[in-house]
Design a protein that fits this description.
The complex is a heterodimer of chains A (277) and B (487).
Chain A: E1 4-11, E2 14-20, H1 22-27, E3 33-37, E4 45-53, E5 58-64, H2 68-74, E6 84-89, E7 100-106, H3 110-122, E8 126-133, H4 142-148, E9 151-156, E10 163-164, H5 167-177, E11 182-186, H6 189-201, E12 206-209, E13 225-228, E14 231-234, H7 235-238, E15 241-243, H8 249-256, H9 260-276
Parallel strand pairs in A: 7-8, 7-11, 8-9, 9-10, 11-12
Antiparallel strand pairs in A: 1-2, 2-5, 3-4, 3-6, 4-5, 12-15, 13-14
Helix pairs in contact in A: 5-6, 6-8
Chain B: H1 12-20, H2 23-28, E1 35-36, H3 39-42, E2 50-52, H4 55-64, H5 83-91, H6 95-105, H7 109-115, H8 127-132, H9 139-153, E3 168-172, H10 176-187, E4 191-195, H11 204-207, H12 216-228, E5 232-234, H13 245-250, E6 253-258, E7 264-265, E8 278-280, H14 281-290, E9 306-310, H15 314-325, E10 330-335, H16 346-354, E11 358-361, E12 363-370, E13 376-389, E14 395-408, E15 411-414, E16 418-419, H17 423-427, E17 452-454, H18 457-460, H19 465-486
Parallel strand pairs in B: 3-4, 3-6, 4-5, 6-17, 8-15, 9-10, 9-15, 10-11
Antiparallel strand pairs in B: 1-2, 7-16, 12-13, 13-14
Helix pairs in contact in B: 4-5, 5-6, 5-9, 6-9, 7-9, 10-19, 15-16
Chain lengths: 277, 487
């Protein structure tokens, strides 16, 4: 179990893995995540499942190399095994026929958005997908999104691909153009915050899928807590999806920085140790 | 499996042993003292604080036991260990046999000998406490001694198991409830598979209780014994999520025991509780105990110079003593009642004090304040006084109007209890859940689904290792009966 069947680079820091996990492949639904741990002393990190193949018995994960733990995971190759992998966790996305659904993903948030786009399309919705990235080489999963969306709009900060501008510009264009019944957004906290502010102006119900710090991922530690509608919620068991208009994204952003200094130090050490070897 | 003929009170060796010394001589022996690492050494490392008894000390302490005709100690034990029998085996220096007696009823004797609140259970029911007004026989120390002796001897006995009856049973959770249930069912001839959500086996024994109180290699040795009995343990697998109950039934599992624990931490819902540096004791202890944060793990942990632990239970003591070991200058217990009302074991409070932990009793946090980065910096504490006894029988804390003080903190660990983990109850349709989130069970620990039994914190909401183990035993007996008449 947990054997890496396929590895591909989406960009220098974003890696795609296909991992053998037949039970999870069978059980997972859109919105579910897994926890992975590399090495005996590794850290448990949450990753949303991007896709699964029940015949192959595999799941797909997209990992951005940011800290030591994701770097260790990204260093694994085809044929290697992920030490620990557990899931599917969290509540599945609420899928129904809303009418027109706008799916807005930024950065590696596009990966967890893919199964939601697929499921929304399958449920009979008209799906408009907006993919945002800093520049062309960071745009991921475009083909797969095309295959499952009625329309895909690409936004890049630097204009190297698609339209130049940030994600909210693309969203507003659609909202001005046509009626949208539901918006789903996945990406960095700041991005989701501005998406939520915008869709609130237009009264479009919006779901955000949150990716917070977790330890066990099963409700035990509370590291993932966020404030939603003034109440503390656990992303791992109450989420990961919440009404974006109720989420305190500023607090979420702040909490994501809890270990910033420690992580930076650890990453520098890791980089020194791997380059000196 | 409950055949204790070999160790019954009437066996010739035991009759003989009783005659070797008079009861009067036995009762004048003073209770043995547990050796401990010196406080100023142990509060800087992770070594086990209690060092155990020597053979001579154990032999002498065992002499204190009067081998009562109607032993009251046994009734104080949630797993009904045949206490006089194991102690008399120690007295005659048959330590391995003493260990075998323990294993008849307890799947984790070395664990129980360390973490059971004996002073509230077996030792509270000992004739010395009940009738003689003296310190009880050190049953806990002796239990630990016998279990440790056996482990170190390398001659660990495997409890006798009935021949396999061909019936498969699944267990959710490898904590004390699940392991105790698994061991008892294996003894009855069932093929048992335990499914554990985490990557490590042991549940709260591993993620919760620190190594200075319960070393991991001791838990692992006891788990190895359970595996030797044919119990299979699968980690990283969540029943209801990774594999459904229906799928388990299809695979031929006839019964399921849910021992998924409490685990959902409670917070006070006061301003600033989501600031960086404020966390649950579950998070703090899991990062350190399970993930090896601050030792060899990649998992980080926040620790500071001024660490406040909110609460007065055993977990609060574990957290505050851990903070001290991670180098806190001030490791404080903040508790809203007085020391007398603290739910923690007296030994834990004593150890914490010796190690330099500060106690701010009759104080209750009302707000946390942070810096620009959102890291907690100070906390406001409401001073309390004791009022009338409340539902728990303890005097209730009452606010002293206007008596508020602010103290400096950089880490706050909230340890005010846990709620049952909703993961498993919500993933198996048809299970009746109480308004507190616990699983509703009959006296026999049967849930609303007849083939599913449950025990430990998922039923109790937050109790002790030994009560969870007692539930495991009780559920095993009941499920055995149910399956025998329904299969």
């Amino acid at each position: 179990m947990n054997k890496i069947l396929k590895k591909a680079f989406f960009s220098s820091n974003v890696v795609y893995f296909e991992v053998e996990a037949p039970l999870i492949a069978q059980a997972r639904k859109a919105g579910h995540f897994v926890l992975v741990k590399v090495g005996t002393n590794g850290e448990r990190i949450p990753l949303t499942i991007a896709a699964s193949d029940t015949t192959k018995g595999s799941i797909s994960l997209v990992v951005q190399r940011v800290g030591v733990s994701s770097a260790k995971l990204c260093a694994l190759n085809e044929g290697d095994y992920i030490t620990d992998l557990v899931g599917p966790l969290g509540k599945a996305t609420h899928i129904e026929k809303y009418g027109t659904v706008l799916c807005a993903g930024g950065g590696v948030g596009v990966a967890p958005l893919l199964p939601i786009v697929e499921a929304m399309k399958k449920a009979g919705n008209k799906v408009i997908t907006i993919l945002a990235a800093r520049s062309k080489e960071l745009v991921i999963l475009e083909e797969q999104m095309e295959a499952n969306s009625d329309e895909v709009i690409i936004m890049t900060d630097d204009g190297t691909y698609g339209k130049k501008g940030i994600i909210t510009a693309g969203i507003e264009e659609v909202l001005l153009r046509e009626r949208v019944d539901m918006c789903v957004t996945v990406g960095p906290a700041v991005m989701m915050k501005y998406v939520a502010l915008l869709t609130k102006q237009y009264n479009v119900p919006t779901m955000a899928s949150l990716n917070t710090i977790m330890v066990d991922g099963t409700g035990m530690c509370g590291a993932c807590r966020v404030t939603v509608g003034g109440k503390t919620k656990f992303v791992c068991v109450d989420g990961p999806e919440f009404d974006a208009h109720q989420v305190d994204f500023d607090e979420m952003q702040m909490r994501l920085g809890s270990y910033k200094e420690i992580e930076q130090k650890a990453m520098n050490q890791y980089l020194t140790s791997t380059t000196s070897n | 499996m409950t055949d204790n003929k070999a160790t019954s009170r009437n066996t010739p060796w035991r009759e003989q042993l009783r005659k070797t010394i008079s009861n009067k001589e036995r009762t004048v022996i003073t209770r043995v003292h547990m050796h401990e690492l010196a406080p100023d050494i142990r509060n800087k490392n992770n070594e086990e604080v209690n060092m155990g008894l020597t053979l001579d000390e154990a032999l002498l302490e065992a002499k204190r036991c009067l081998d009562c005709p109607n032993p009251t100690c046994t009734s104080g034990c949630p797993v009904n260990i045949d206490i006089p029998s194991f102690i008399k085996n120690i007295e005659r220096n048959a330590i391995l046999e003493a260990a075998a007696v323990l294993k008849q009823t307890s799947a984790l004797p070395a664990v129980c000998g360390r973490v059971c609140p004996q002073e509230k259970q077996c030792e509270a029911s000992c004739i010395y406490t009940q009738k003689l007004g003296k310190a009880a026989v050190a049953i806990g120390y002796l239990e630990r001694f016998a279990a440790d002796y056996e482990r170190k001897s390398g001659k660990a006995s495997i409890p006798e198991c009935a021949p396999l009856n061909g019936i498969k049973i699944a267990v959710v959770g490898s904590g004390p409830a699940g392991l105790s249930f698994a061991g008892d069912m294996a003894k009855r001839g069932y093929k048992v598979t335990v499914f554990e959500a985490l990557h490590e086996i042991g549940g709260v024994l591993k993620y919760g209780i620190p190594e200075f109180r319960l070393p991991n290699d001791i838990i692992d040795a006891e788990i190895e014994n359970i595996k030797q009995m044919g119990v299979e343990i699968i980690t990283n697998c969540i029943v209801g999520k990774t594999i459904t109950y229906d799928e388990l039934k299809k695979q031929g599992y006839k019964g399921l025991f849910v021992g998924s624990g409490a685990g959902l931490p409670r917070f006070m819902n006061i301003p600033g509780e989501n600031l960086i540096g404020v966390m649950s004791s579950n998070e703090y202890l899991t990062r350190i105990n399970l993930m090896g944060a601050s030792r060899n793990g990649d998992t980080p942990v926040l620790s500071g110079e001024n660490v406040a632990i909110i609460g007065g239970g055993n977990t609060a003591m574990d957290a505050v003593r851990t903070a001290k070991r991670l180098g806190a200058k001030h490791a404080m217990i903040v508790y809203r009642r007085s020391e007398q009302e603290m739910p923690a074991r007296i030994e834990e409070i004593k150890h914490a004090k010796e190690e330099g932990v500060e106690f701010l009793t009759l104080h209750n946090p009302i707000e946390y304040m942070g810096d620009e980065q959102g890291r907690v910096k100070t906390m406001r504490l409401q001073k309390m006084a004791l009022g009338e006894p409340d539902a728990s029988g303890r005097r209730s804390p009452v606010e002293i109007p206007g008596a508020i003080e602010t103290i400096t903190v950089d880490t706050v660990i909230v340890s005010i209890g846990v709620s049952p983990n909703p993961l498993v109850p919500s993933s198996i349709p048809g299970l009746t859940v109480s308004k507190w989130g616990t699983l509703v069970v009959s006296d026999d620990l049967q849930t609303s689904i007849p083939a599913i039994y449950a025990g430990g914190d998922i039923v109790r909401g937050g109790a002790t290792v030994i009560l969870a183990m007692g539930d495991g035993r009780k559920a095993a007996a009941a499920m055995d009966q149910y399956l025998m008449s329904n299969c």
